[in-house]
Write a structure and sequence with these properties.
Layout (H helix, E strand, L loop, with lengths): L2 H26 L9 H9 L4 H40 L5 H16 L35 E2 L3 E4 L2 E4 H21 L20 H8 L13 H10 L6 E4 L3 H19 L4 E4 H8 L3 H5 L5 E4 L2 H10 L5 E5 L5 H13 L3 E5 L7 E4 L5 E2 L13 E2 L1 H8 L49 E4 L5 E4 L2 E2 L5 H12 L7 H8 L9 H19 L4 E4 L2 E4 L4 E3 H14 L4 H10 L14 H22 L3 H14 L4 H13 L3 H18 L29
Parallel strand pairs: 4-8, 4-9, 5-6, 5-7, 7-8, 12-17
Antiparallel strand pairs: 1-2, 2-3, 3-11, 9-10, 12-13, 13-14, 15-16
Helix pairs in contact: 1-3, 5-8, 7-8, 8-13, 11-12, 14-16, 17-18, 18-19, 19-20, 20-21, 21-22
């Protein structure tokens, strides 16, 4: 504990400040008693070194030393006070809403009787003033933390119902499946993959995914028809106007909710005008307009009416109040309602009911103050744009050549190191600890092996840290990088204690089990110690580096890459930071499989190599096209057809068959999916 030392230091400083003056005044008295007279000056000049003058000089010197000490202490105290004042100024104060909620919670806690707890029924949201300005609609929850409740998830950029959050997580998984499907192998290279289609998803998407880390998101989102029907059912049949401080935030929430539902329904679900889309998304509207599936953008309300009349299907029509007049919007609402859709006018309904919108997403019907209204998804511009990334079509423009990344780390045998000496605060290492090495398996199920036995790591975050440091070897990671990866969307200031506690427990568990320290902390960076630890990923990276730089016997080098890859990186884990690294690693191995198959003159052996690639990635269209071509060339037409059919079923089950079959590589007219050692049963 530090407080005894701090108390002792304070007592020493006080003793040094008060002790010398007391001693000097009591034993010697004042060093100078008034100004010296002329006789005293003349006597001092004639005989300067006397007992009295020496005593006075020593006394003055002692006082000067004490003044220097007092000055130093005063400067340190002022500096500390200035730092404290600056910290207090930066300390976030509670908003009026927080203060009100805290006061109500405190009153409820202290006002409840100890022998009885009464839960009052939820009250409807209070009506908002109709004239509240709408340009203050930015959703800024007082807590930047990810808060999951029974009905939704609160993010820094808004609030998502559980159904929408699950659809976002499922759509994010589909993004990576599409990237796996569309990747075309290339010759193995010496650099890390930096393709644009392997970049991580935006922070808001990662925050939603993190909410499902401990309880993984379903591979298939909630039934889209049910989600869309629930959204339509929450709105009046006659149409709805929305007014209040949460108007634009709810408009963005409707945009995201409808497009996510339409993404799985594969039918157009949203109609809006260019002006409305710009008001919701700002400068990103024009770039996203033509790349959003299931969205139809028109210029005027008359165009929207003609579209709904010509293609009657359930849709949400989003408009701005300034674009509407009474008759046109009434006619459009009736037409949309006939087809099972709804019209929502942001800013007020010129020919029907107008509900008040709170920044929290609650809608309130002023004509029915006793009935609580529904709560819809609310998002600010940044969060809405981030979430659109999971459903937007890739940019049709060809991507610029990626800048080569840093070379893969070359794993070399570690130099012999002196064993770390234990301090009094640490238990001594076991006698044979210096000769032991632990093994960390991250390809497949992450496992830390001590003498061949798996070590139980209780915290999921601790296991994430181990895998994250393994993937970032040898550079390591600082506290900010660890916090952003393990807990995306959570303010760093609230993570310091959680991160240090997790690291401390992890290091203690490893030290107690093995007597070794495998996590080093130098220069504010955490690294894994290769002298005490073997990691299968590092062996794979060394094989990739060797294959990329091999001038001769490349076939053996490529085969070593394939042999060093038993399974996907942290297979089965849904950590948001993991997908880009996992995909980059997988692509290196697929490149090696394709290179081996291209260099193999024996057709059966070439087919077996393609089967190995398909076992690594059963979604890759190029590998399936190669396998289809190999089967067709050998005359296995029935097997090729079966392979093609199974591939289409796999894509359909995954939910990515909407645009796959028509855009497969030209190696074969039909690409396929699954693999097996039997040429007629590639699984």
């Amino acid at each position: 504990m530090r407080w005894p030392r701090q108390l002792m230091s304070l007592l020493v400083v006080l003793a040094l400040l008060t002790g010398p003056p007391v001693v000097l005044l009591l034993l010697i008295g004042p060093s100078i008693r008034g100004w010296p007279s002329t006789e005293q000056v003349r006597a001092w000049v004639q005989q300067p070194l006397t007992e009295q003058t020496l005593t006075a000089a020593l006394t003055i010197g002692a006082w000067l030393l004490w003044l220097l000490l007092a000055y130093t202490v005063a400067v340190r105290v002022l500096t500390r006070l200035r730092t404290t004042v600056g910290w207090l100024r930066r300390l976030p104060l509670p908003t009026p809403l927080q203060a009100t909620a805290s006061g109500m919670a405190g009153a409820a806690v202290f006002g409840v009787a100890t022998n009885q707890v009464t839960i009052a029924p939820p009250q409807p949201s209070p009506p908002l003033t109709a004239g509240t300005p709408e340009d203050s609609d930015r959703v800024s929850p007082s807590r930047g933390d990810i808060v999951a409740s029974d009905d939704g998830i609160l993010l820094a950029g808004g609030w998502l119902p559980n159904e929408v959050a699950e659809q976002v997580a499922a759509a994010a998984a589909l993004v990576w499946l599409r990237r796996r499907r569309d990747y075309q192998p290339r010759p193995p290279g010496p650099h890390r993959r930096e393709e644009l289609d392997a970049a991580g998803l935006p922070p808001t998407v990662a925050a939603v995914q993190a909410a499902f880390t401990d309880a993984p998101a379903p591979s298939v989102a909630p039934e889209p028809s049910g989600s869309f029907a629930a959204l339509v059912g929450a709105l009046p049949v006659s149409g709805l106007g929305v007014s209040g401080p949460g108007t634009l935030s709810i408009g963005r929430g409707l945009l995201i909710t409808a497009l996510l539902a339409g993404h799985r329904l594969r039918t157009p679900t949203l109609v809006t005008t260019s002006a409305t889309l710009t008001s919701l998304l700002g400068g990103d509207a024009q770039a996203l307009d033509r790349r959003l599936p299931r969205l139809t953008t028109v210029e005027t309300i008359h165009d929207a009416t003609r579209l709904v009349e010509s293609a009657p299907s359930p849709r949400i029509v989003l408009l701005l109040k300034e674009e509407c007049d009474g008759y046109d919007v009434r006619h459009l609402a009736d037409t949309a309602a006939t087809a099972g859709g709804r019209v929502v006018v942001l800013g007020g309904w010129p020919a029907g009911p107008t509900w008040q919108a709170a920044p929290t997403g609650h809608l309130h019907d002023p004509s029915r103050p006793e009935e609580p209204g529904p709560r819809l998804c609310v998002l600010d511009q940044v969060a809405a744009t981030d979430l659109l990334a999971v459903i937007v079509h890739p940019d049709p423009a060809p991507p610029a050549p990626a800048t080569p990344g840093p070379p893969l780390p070359h794993v070399v045998p570690p130099k012999a190191r002196l064993p770390r000496q234990a301090t009094r605060a640490e238990p001594r290492s076991r006698p044979d600890a210096s000769s032991r090495r632990l093994r960390l398996r991250v390809l497949g199920e992450p496992t830390l092996l001590v003498d061949g036995e798996p070590l139980t790591i209780r915290r999921s975050a601790a296991l994430q840290i181990l895998v994250f440091l393994a993937t970032n070897h040898p550079t390591g990671a600082n506290t900010s990088q660890l916090a952003d990866a393990i807990w995306p969307g959570v303010p760093r200031r609230s993570l310091t204690g959680r991160l240090y506690t997790t690291l401390s427990e992890l290091r203690t568990a490893i030290r107690d089990a093995s007597g070794m320290h495998i996590i080093e902390h130098t220069d504010d960076r955490y690294r894994l110690n290769p002298a005490h630890l073997n990691v299968d990923l590092w062996q794979l990276q060394a094989a990739i580096h060797q294959a990329a730089s091999a001038a001769t016997n490349t076939t053996a080098a490529w085969q070593a890459v394939v042999d060093a890859y038993p399974a996907d990186l942290a297979a089965g884990r849904t950590w948001p930071w993991l997908d880009p690294i996992r995909e980059a690693t997988r692509r290196h191995v697929i490149d090696a499989c394709a290179a081996l198959a291209d260099a193999e003159p024996d057709p059966p052996r070439r087919l077996a190599l393609l089967q190995a690639g398909l076992r690594i990635d059963p979604y890759n269209a190029d590998l399936h096209a190669r396998a289809h071509s190999a089967l067709t060339t050998r005359g296995y037409h029935e097997a090729a057809t079966e392979l093609h059919d199974r591939y289409l079923r796999l894509l359909s089950e995954a939910g990515i068959d909407d645009d796959a079959p028509d855009r497969l590589p030209s190696r074969a007219s039909n690409a396929t999916s699954s693999a097996s050692s039997n040429p007629t049963h590639l699984t």
